[in-house]
Amino acid sequence: MPRYENENHDGSAKGEALESRGFMPLYVDSMFVGIQGILDCGCADPAGIGEAVKQISGFEGLSGEITYAGTNGIPPKAVPINRIVDGEDVLVATIGADWEGGAVAAAPSGLDVDAVLAADLSDCAATPSGDPIRVGMAMDFSDVVGFVDIPGSKVVPYVAELINCAGGINGSPVEVRVAEVGDDAALATQELLDWGAHFLIGPPFADFALPILQTTGGQVPLFVAASTEPTLADASINSYLVTFDDYGMSEAAARWALDQGITRAIVFTEGEGIPYTGVNPDAFIAEFEANGGEVVSTQTYVWAADTDFSAQVNEIAGISQNNEVVFSAALAFQVTALRGQLEGQGLDGLTYVGTDALDATGIQVEANNEGIAHTPHVSISAGDRVDTLLADYEAAKGEALESRGFMPLYVDSMFVGIQGILDCGCTDPAGIGEAVKQLSGFEGLSGEITYAGTNGIPPKAVPINRIVDGEDVLVATIGD
User: Fold this and answer.
1) Which of 42-51, 88-97, 118-127, 353-362 has the lowest mean pLDDT?
2) N or C: which end of the chain has fewer CB within 10 A?
3) How far is CA 243 from the centre of its chain?
4) Which pLDDT tens digit goes with each residue over 179-206?
């Protein structure tokens, strides 16, 4: 964002010396931060400027650094202590919030993700002995989302082992407890709260996430790790996505198709407004048409079930010019089944792009997958941090985790919760939630995460991966 840059002047222009010299920077900074608010909001509306000022963090003014984010209007500042020495007024000390009875305490530290990932379970530091940080996971192991929540519930405890191996968090161990939501998400949640969970990692769909929020009363941070459902993001009740939402994902898919010079689209949906299976197609259609594209056919289907698309294919065959993009939120086996049936009608020039569902359900290993594009949460390259973590897990646990591109979201859910604890210097869930709301620029496994100034959806660019010569490779990045 633009920053307002101030310049120092020597004051000789007016021919008079100002009194109360130490107070003058406060008046100047009052103007500077107001101007910065205008720059940050891109507006001249006083109410909008006020909202922007509430989020100012780390503004370097004449009087020092000014932050209003996470405060009630009093910027946290160290206090200079001056003393008259040999007739001169000189600085002899600076006392800040870290002062403890004459000893300066260490400032809250950021979570060192690289140090955690580098931990060697065969050569650990001393076992941390402080009060534990407790991470509760309310997971859905059903057929609907078990393909992400099951491996997610395995990778988080493993990373907690790495944290503890590296010495814990300021000497505190991290404990993880997994509770399967089954038919009663509220009961599973209460079990975790009774255990003393400081924050929760939850399932991706509202069916179970909403009962969790009702049980917490919005007082305990909930990270819906694998979710892209925009209605689940609400910072006012401590409910956070860890990645882009349906709109960001499907709008990016539409832009990518247009960038390929494709101006005609065939869209499969379960129905307008239906969470995920309808909202993603809705978002794709709106973005595609708003930028000059034409949706020539909209077809309905049953998500996660249909593999016989003969009726839809017959209709498409009478419309298609064999140059369209085919978009849906369907699972990998459905998209390849549809493709095979369309190719059986001679439609072999179509381009296929889908959502994160393709990554979750293994488009990389499906037959007839060449050229299919999708929107993973993380584009994993051989030897990068995510690939190394997953390889280390496999070596340590004797099994490979599925839904690889989703695993960083589960890990980051734990990381940002821990960072909230570090930032607030507390273990009270409500206080942790307040700190999470102000989180900005956290570098996680899945990319940079910012909640400050949002309603719980971190602004993120969307990777576009495509199967090229049998390999799943990054071909574009759309967005922030």
Assistant:
1) 88-97
2) N
3) 3
4) 999 999 999 999 999 999 999 999 999 9
Residue 100's pLDDT band, with cuts at 50, 70 and 90, is very low
Chain-centre distance for alpha carbon 443: 10
The pair of structure tokens assigned to 50 is: 């006020």
Query: Which residues lie below 8 Å from residue 208, measured CB to CB, with a gap of 6+?
Result: 138, 140, 181, 185, 202
What mean pLDDT is reported for the chain?
A: 91
Sign of CA dihedral 71, 74, 75, 76: negative
Residues 6+ apart with CB under 8 A from 374: 353, 354, 355, 356, 358, 359, 363, 464, 465, 466
**The tokens of 257 are what?**
């198709």
Return the pLDDT at 142: 93
Cβ atoms 445, 378 nearer than 8 A: yes
H/E stretch holding 475: strand 471-478
Burial class of residue 338 in the structure, from the number of CB atoms within 10 Å of its CB (0-12 exposed, 13-18 middle, 19+ buried): buried
Picking from 135, 125, 293, 325, the residue whose alpha carbon sits closest to that of residue 220 is 135
Residues in the chain: 480
pLDDT at 105: 35
Residue type, 133: I
pTM of the model: 0.77
Position 349: which residue type?
Answer: G
State the Cα–Cα distance between residues 176 and 201, nearest whole angstrom.
10
Mean pLDDT along residues 359-383: 96
